Fold each of these.
Amino acid sequence: MIKETKGKQTRRKIVAEAAPIFNRHGYEGSSLNDLMAATGLKKGGIYRHFSSKEELAGEAFDYMCSEAWRARMQHLDPEAPGVEQLKQLIESFVHHRLPFPGGCPILNTAIDADDGNPMLRERVRKALRMWMARLQSIVKTAAKHGEIRRSVKPKTVATLLLATLEGALMISRLERSDDALRRAQQHLNHYLDTEVAV
Amino acid sequence: MIKETKGKQTRRKIVAEAAPIFNRHGYEGSSLNDLMAATGLKKGGIYRHFSSKEELAGEAFDYMCSEAWRARMQHLDPEAPGVEQLKQLIESFVHHRLPFPGGCPILNTAIDADDGNPMLRERVRKALRMWMARLQSIVKTAAKHGEIRRSVKPKTVATLLLATLEGALMISRLERSDDALRRAQQHLNHYLDTEVAV
């Protein structure tokens, strides 16, 4: 195993420590003071590793996405039937918190960047499309195995799952209650059973 | 009709001009310079009417909510059956833009304020609850008229409609395509026909 250089280690540490700040307060709302407090570094210490706040924000977003991806995939059994896998992902979204505060980085950064920073916007689009592709691929594989109705469009299933869960998360975080997420889960599971599965 | 004082007029004008800035860039992302450019006023001109940026942001949010409410209600026929009214609101959400840029102020401000400004967070909660109450009241009235299945919970219908539409809006704005919103509409209309209506 190649040993990571000290510089790379520090860089990764800064990214991990800055990520919750960006996730909770957004790009503009994260001040250099907040980032210094979170990392325990002075301005020069941060900018020795990153050319700009934008570069740090971009890496922090990618870091959160890969952590979120890993956390969600832990609850997915790739051997299970497709509809079951989709239910496992819904269950994970509703009942398992991500390993950093602030909620879903895709939702937060999408709202933050849709009229804002173009670099961040491009990264969120990429992340959203990875999730869309993953969900669609589960539906397509299930269709090949004859588990899915012929009329079902994989993109529709993927869109509905992501839209409903992200919207319910917005309500749940605002209300500080998982009520909306639980109702969304019940609805989506029922939809999968009655409209998607054969 | 009582004539509005010049001060009140100016105040209302500042709120209307500042609203799109807050809606597009969030509370922290809206700088005094942005607000000065939007209103054509100097710092002193703004702070003669508002004690703080927070006060202005709060009034701008309430202004957008009442404009959004009025815009949506224009597409609603209160004499139509309940399920039809819900479809009209979905149609309005999917196909009619609000009279200011930046998308839905509830979604934007909820994400902006869920880990941020408590005064704004409280205002978004209030606005979300007004929408929830409106949708629930449509379902309850329809239930009294025997148009709705007995097992249907008004809060579930209201939650699913808001969550799915807001989540689809997030995707549509990010992708700059109404594809997600159209899929959401089709799904929700089908849900209303098959799971809600008698």
Amino acid sequence: ASYNLLLLPGDGIGPEVMAGVETVLAALKETGIASFETETDHVGGSAIDVHGKPLADATLARAKSADAILLGAVGGPKWTGVAYDIRPEAGLLRLRKDLGLFANLRPAICYPALADASALKRELVEGLDIMIVRELTGGVYFGEPKEITVLPDGSKRAVDTQVYTTGEIERIAHVAFDLARKRSGRVASAEKNNVMKSGVLWKEVVTQVHAQHYTDVELEHVLADNCAMQLVRRPKQFDVLVTDNLFGDVLSDVAAMLTGSLGMLPSASLGAAEDGGLRKALYEPVHGSAPDIAGADKANPIAMIGSLAMCLRYSFGLGEAADLIERAITDTLAAGTRTADIATDGAQAVGTKAMAEAIAAA
Amino acid sequence: ASYNLLLLPGDGIGPEVMAGVETVLAALKETGIASFETETDHVGGSAIDVHGKPLADATLARAKSADAILLGAVGGPKWTGVAYDIRPEAGLLRLRKDLGLFANLRPAICYPALADASALKRELVEGLDIMIVRELTGGVYFGEPKEITVLPDGSKRAVDTQVYTTGEIERIAHVAFDLARKRSGRVASAEKNNVMKSGVLWKEVVTQVHAQHYTDVELEHVLADNCAMQLVRRPKQFDVLVTDNLFGDVLSDVAAMLTGSLGMLPSASLGAAEDGGLRKALYEPVHGSAPDIAGADKANPIAMIGSLAMCLRYSFGLGEAADLIERAITDTLAAGTRTADIATDGAQAVGTKAMAEAIAAA
Ligand SMILES: CC(C)[C@H](C(=O)O)[C@@H](O)C(=O)O
Ligand SMILES: CC(C)[C@H](C(=O)O)[C@@H](O)C(=O)O
């Protein structure tokens, strides 16, 4: 079969790590395992430079008709200091919202070979394997009103609105429980029901979905502040962690940092299943655009290549091809190949390009 | 001078650690350094049991007339599962709001003797000394609307509102910059201006206050998700960290956990300076009510006793008495006395009472 992939390299190190994906795709094609048609377009700062806005309508249309989307990273100092609706990040937010990508899956895995790169003691993170399920199209990111008004005395008042409905919470809860069944059968749900009404509804709906459909899965409720603490104290207590958009933003960054392998972590943002069973989906590294090392052939392409593997698995059911890529990553690391971010003191680091080629060869 | 202190032991281990404060107050009185009149009242779950609500009006009135308030901890499984406005936590939130305690100061200090208790590698936390300045009476905690409505189809919609005004941000920024001047002269301000309008206003106002009054202080802006990451990766990069109510809740818990000394960390919640120069203030440990060990003489009273020291320093200008208490804590630890939470494997732990007595004696 041939699939249509939209590549959105974006800003900073985005184009370099995306080149790694193209290297791997070429290798997959050669071996005859799978073949893809790719299109490339702009998003974020690079789209602002070209089109004057971070997501052109034509790009959105392409994204809607593509079978899946791979995104590099957006943002950089060049485009800050302006109203946030015309910043690079706004392009990403609009993609998520307009494509209905409500479920953000962020695995936080500690690669054994890299456990020493973690800030945490080795025994606390060795073998760590958490799946964060973050709600991605609701909450304070998109609720209205969302505005700054000028008061009569010239001072200002800013408002953001966190909104969640039963339906929004139900569908993300299903994603979390379904994933838990394929993993260790445990879900932790994080909110602040002691302070927020959306937290009260969140807890209530997750509890209901659990009682009605997933009594075989173990469910634990945890306050978001305590959850952040527990992630640092004893991260391996968690398996699947489901939470809202804003808490998910912070907690998934903490979890990613714990692994010591930030440059290695992929993510998937999934929409609702469509008629053909296919979910609209976007795959991107957890790391950002790292403008300080952009263009220097220093970035680690593994998170981006791992995002391609997730894409093959979740969007196209190509589990074997995904396994192949993931094994190639593991083998390449086992052979001692390291980019600068994961090279232990003294070890020789390779560049972005060389790493991608090593993985493609493997 | 004689001051009037209101003691609110609260729930769980609250009463035990508050007993430690009384032990230390008695020792201070004996030595003639300072003398206090204390009153004791209920808050949280214990107030629900006695008065049917987590903060009786009479208790609030007492809090308003007291020179300062010491609080133990509130909450516990006994009082969960009900609407949150009549839960133990609601008593604490009402105290903060009605007393105007807008500035929550949370030091995160790693005691050298306890660096090994941290989940982080020793070199990352040794010497850690961060002061988190959390806005405490605004944001999503108190903004309206804050409600759950039932939709025509029977499903629900929950709304919370994050509101910040120029004035609210200005006054917390002043607290942070003033503190930084007495410390290492650096402030980091955390928000999500790439997603939230309140983050846009936050950044704008903090920038203005800095430019107008504190150009001698170094100011850095950081996104809250990245801040959480950086706290784990390299916590010592931060000195004073100022942020809003909700991010402060999560980030201060992360910072506290990093130190490995959660049972040791005090906090101060300060109001605006009144006519006499006195600020209305409440002091409490960062840790919670730990219902699992309540009544077992296992809790560490140091955070509570440290809160008394903060009280003497900030509310009464009794810096020397505060130093004395803090030195007594350090000496007691140096002598090897440990409660169970900070005892390293094999070492004999003492109880709450014995620890408080050792500090009082010192
Ligand atoms: C870039 C930004 C808008 C985004 C977010 O806050 O969701 C990022 O932090 C993320 O987690 O993907
Ligand atoms: C008990 C709870 C309402 C409170 C909060 O969320 O502020 C607590 O977590 C804290 O940080 O003091």
Amino acid sequence: MAIIIDGKSIAEELRAEIRKEVNELKSKTGKLPGLAVILVGENPASQVYVRMKGKACEEVGIVSFQHTLHHDTSQDDLVSLIRTLNAAPEVNGILVQLPLPSHINENAVINAIDPLKDVDGFHPVNVGKMVIGDEDCFYPCTPLGCQELINRYVNDLKGKHLVMVGRSNIVGKPLANMMVQKNKRANCIVTICHTAAADIGYFTRQADILVVAAGKPNTIRGNMVKEGAVVIDVGVNRIENPTDSAKSKLVGDVNFDEVSKVAAAITPVPGGVGPLTITMLLANTLKAFKYHNKIVQ
Amino acid sequence: MAIIIDGKSIAEELRAEIRKEVNELKSKTGKLPGLAVILVGENPASQVYVRMKGKACEEVGIVSFQHTLHHDTSQDDLVSLIRTLNAAPEVNGILVQLPLPSHINENAVINAIDPLKDVDGFHPVNVGKMVIGDEDCFYPCTPLGCQELINRYVNDLKGKHLVMVGRSNIVGKPLANMMVQKNKRANCIVTICHTAAADIGYFTRQADILVVAAGKPNTIRGNMVKEGAVVIDVGVNRIENPTDSAKSKLVGDVNFDEVSKVAAAITPVPGGVGPLTITMLLANTLKAFKYHNKIVQ
């Protein structure tokens, strides 16, 4: 039976460290880090995420500035708000909650964020630096959380075969690029597989480390995992209960019951990767604050 | 016996198309595309490459501006030349020949190039856009040449397993990122393997398409390749003849004699990928010219 990776307690541990550092920096500089979060429209899931981010900021002493814009907000108005925040000294990080309404071009909006305030790590400059291996950048939060978990549960990553299922810009592509770098927290042989594969199991069965961000429950069954693999499940899928909507539940992309019998360690959903994602947003905001205040550590 | 991929004649065909388009654009705009090439120091190999690039420009009607700087040139002076070229309307592409002398920070120099003139595709903005799948960018020349060859020799890339040996910023990482994208010229399952692998053959034997940029002769032997694979050899290694230096010869990273008996198609060295690299530099310069002159096609 696999070890269940307790993302929640790892996240709490990391948040305690961030809180401590924020306090120390406050004594030193008289200032607190600030994160601006922009929400456009009334997507309920986005509202939940934005609220969680605000709460997490509060817990560690980061000031959060929430900007809620009407669904019909024009792209120009959104970009002009971003320009204002780019210039605001009390704002160290800017996050635009995705997805945006369809009349707004996401790339154009992300490109408007000052790369030095892009704590989501989605701006091309940050993506490019991450790929090049220039660490003077922001790494995206979910892959950063996955990397943290992998490093806690795998000894000596050098040459380990990491198979990434999914090629999104938010998880699959950045994590693959981070884990292939020549540094101590990476140095893996990396395979990215996705919907174009005739047989995903052929690839996943080879994985020492299997990361799944496919967006579909049951993508990975027990017979698709090598004995002793470390499995990181990034998926979050809501399964409705047809008779009682209050009893809907969250599941990942991995069949937990089957895979936990084969793997050495596995993240649960919820309580695995999720808590790490917001923690890494806090860590990135702290990094931005130190950068803007020229604090070298 | 494998088909020998004739990079030289494919490059000639592409250059003829570029020449034709340059002529047409000259009639239309009264202008010619311009490429500035900067060489710092007297590295003999770099001198050869710069000369080849100048000659290739001439052949297709691109104006080449060559800037040869002394080995001791300061980083500031180099960056200031780049700023001048960024502002020069007759210059559509800027290329700094690498490697630079050790007192100069390569990243800082590349970052100074206007991304819209970065025809080498090494600026973080271009690397980031490539990864994100935003095609409004410059792709690096050698990977672009490999992609062209792969598309000519493999039908329907969807789901094919491409194994990339090597993780350099010039070839391995960008090609892996290009070939995993969801588009018709890519859509492969991609594995990047490198020096950290205990057994490279384990990965290379799985490849439908094997691309090798390891920088070492004989990295790939006959028993490391699947029957029927398409093999792209990016390596260029000079083997000296101990008794007669004039008889030195170029070889790739792949043992050609052995692998050509197993593969379906293989690039020779020289005459495989090499001629495509400079051709893609010309294509990128033409793309930059059209961009700067707002010519949509």
Amino acid sequence: MALIVQKYGGTSVGTPERIQAVAERVKRFRSQGDDVVVVVSAMSGVTDALIKLARSVHADPPVRELDVLLATGEQQTIALLAMALEKIGCAARSYTGQQVHILTDNAYGKARIVKIDETRIHEDLKKGHVVVVAGFQGVDDLGNITTLGRGGSDTTGVALAAALKADECQIYTDVDGVYTTDPRIEPQARRLDRITFEEMLELASLGSKVLQIRSVEFAGKYHVPLRVLSSFGEGPGTLITYEDNDMEAPLISGIAFNRDEAKLTIRGVPDKPGIAALILGEIGKANINVDMIVQNVAADDTTDFTFTVHRGEYKKALDVLKRVARELKAREVSGDDKIVKISIVGVGMRSHAGIASQMFKALADEGINIQMISTSEIKVSVVVEEKYLELGVRALHNTFGLEKTGQPAS
Amino acid sequence: MALIVQKYGGTSVGTPERIQAVAERVKRFRSQGDDVVVVVSAMSGVTDALIKLARSVHADPPVRELDVLLATGEQQTIALLAMALEKIGCAARSYTGQQVHILTDNAYGKARIVKIDETRIHEDLKKGHVVVVAGFQGVDDLGNITTLGRGGSDTTGVALAAALKADECQIYTDVDGVYTTDPRIEPQARRLDRITFEEMLELASLGSKVLQIRSVEFAGKYHVPLRVLSSFGEGPGTLITYEDNDMEAPLISGIAFNRDEAKLTIRGVPDKPGIAALILGEIGKANINVDMIVQNVAADDTTDFTFTVHRGEYKKALDVLKRVARELKAREVSGDDKIVKISIVGVGMRSHAGIASQMFKALADEGINIQMISTSEIKVSVVVEEKYLELGVRALHNTFGLEKTGQPAS
């Protein structure tokens, strides 16, 4: 008799048949005696179609009205899933974000959940109903409809699980869990039975697009056990949870990579306080997000400065940087959009020295030159030439023994 | 400076271009200094598509969830219209039925409006906003989403106009007003400048499908001046209002007809109390609606009983009637589904005698035999052979001078 919140994404509810399959799965949990709250996204393609419709009326649709429009996508799914549940004898009630009062701030299109009134849901659960809630949407304190931004349904699921003190929040997707790395790159990649919130945050932000990062933060903050699993299979998925002191954590949990970055360097900048803020300030004003930043001091009182941006903004960033270079009388500006970032992530790093050098040696053994290095408490990232992506990931996967369950080689 | 409620149906907002045309029209009223509240239906085809989607999940969708699903249709239109208004510099705010608290009973799929909280709308109007409200939907006292049934957007418009004490409720459709009769039958048919609520009720129920009958009742009850006009043209339309004592009402305002009826007769039934209730009771139990009812007493203590039903239920009604006839030992049952009902409607009848006989004479002059007659205070209906429909309507249109503005010939 557990209370479980299940979240199904757009692909999982993409057709009437898939909605029926979700209903069958929910029913199996009900039959075991579990209370189930289901959070759903819009059917796949619906949100994009609505955005297209909005743009046919207004090239830059007012955000308040766009949220009113987009919220209909999830509202349709909740009704259809409740119908499918009723059809197989599972009493169900659907609710929009407004109806269960998912209170958010009023940042239309990217609202944040402030509070959820769980009274009505508890009442329905007590009556034996499955409660189906629209993901991605809420309501501000004036009753305006808001949306949480792309992937916001994950956040709705976790926030509901936190408010309801659910035993588990299950995120159903089209993959069956979190892997040590992308199986398309490394066929030996292995599904992790469990991973910590911190590791998941690093993996998610580095490009393992399994879960929306805000939902992981939320789950970590409110201690909601989060499970990623497939809506098409029956496996146990991956449990994302706090570090378990009883068991020795593996050194490295996974290898992430990101092909969407480009690197820019400005050389021979006067090495004085405020110079980094000045350069990055100009980049920021151009609305370009910066990822990795590395600075080295040269011998002649000048400094070299390298950073990465999204590849789509490479040209724009290069133009800004050239202008800044002229103003600062910097020696040289260069860039490269044929790079890739590879990262190893693992909480085990905290208590084990030498992980970084083990990583660098593995890459060197394959003749891969490292262009940038950046480290955090549980992560080491390197930038290498794009053509070394597969080779680098496989070498690291093998070095840290990720294909094997249990303790890694070291 | 008037307060106007405008309602646009599904065809009027059927494409992004048409939504933009509606926005332009609203803007013209705003530019004159009017306050405007707009009620919209779902884009044409959307509601049907949603019903189809529901049936693909559940052959007989639960009514509560069907309402949640269908309400998304109007919600999409309000957002799109508000965007179109903002685009042309007209500040606008969209609201669902739930957001402006259109309180209804909880009869899902056919809910009735109980109360509207107009505070928020007045506040927005004061700020100079156009308020766009979703038609067809409301919310019950537990916060469940309800819908008013097909054509319910007209009712939303009128109810809002009543709550806001609007100066006029304008219903935009694909016709440019109420006509003296169907122009496809009588090319001389003329648009009426004005008509009374009572006449409109009789015309609507008799088959002039311009306005939803509930909305006319509502407008009459709350003294809301109602105007029917075209969303594609610029004419003044037809004003539906209370009888104006200052001006002499025309004898006859319009001629309605209904081809969807069939006639059934049971002859030689014992003429005793309760017999009509017994016969019609059996028909009612079979869920068949009866329209006209005529009873004649014969000389031999038996009675003949004739009534009309919807043509689609003719066979079913005939079967019921035959069974009843056996039980009552009636002499004979007969029927005819090749009939048509023609009605003349006009409040002027109240104060003028001889209208009915003038009607009968006009039909007789054309050699049209009358099979049934039924009268009310402001209406005379006859049933004639189907083939006489056009001839009968034209003869009556001419007899009562409906092609001419002002007073009729008499």
